[in-house]
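Thread title: Can someone regenerate the structure for this chain?

I was given the following input by a collaborator and told the matching structure tokens would be attached. They weren't. Posting the sequence so someone can regenerate them.
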Amino acid sequence: MKSFSLFIAFLILPFFTSTTNNNHEYYVSVTQVEYSEKAQSLQIISQIFINDFETLLRKRYDENITLDTEQEDEVVETYMKRYLADKLKFSVNGSPVSFKFIGKEYKEDITYCYLEVENVSNIKSIGVTNQLLFDVFADQQNILRLKLLGKNKSFLLVPENDSCLLNFK
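Best answer:
Regenerated them for you:
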């Protein structure tokens, strides 16, 4: 299963980085979760196509939103925070944890959202539910990469299977 997930990730990523409009063949996001033992935190980066995220924010919050502009409205970040908190859920050792929205940046055609779960130690398991963009794109797939405590694991999450659990026992 691990090799299949990695195969899918490598197969889809070239399409993820080379597309510049909403008419692309694949709808995919990539979320990477790493544990920083020094900071005792989960450090998370979610990568979402700018135009897909813009489409979602327009449908959900305000049809006049435009991302990646010099005059981007301050409310955009508020909407991003709200949406990510609603659709991206984490648990550590079976208990839900909240993340802090650190910020975002745009590179080429991708939005990078930086998140952090603070005060994390003694990890026995981590659970993730990722429903990003499922409410807008029926074919959306979300790749999740976990780098924790010497383990590297990738998951392909789809609307019918949007959660995963990694145990460290």
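The mean pLDDT is 87.
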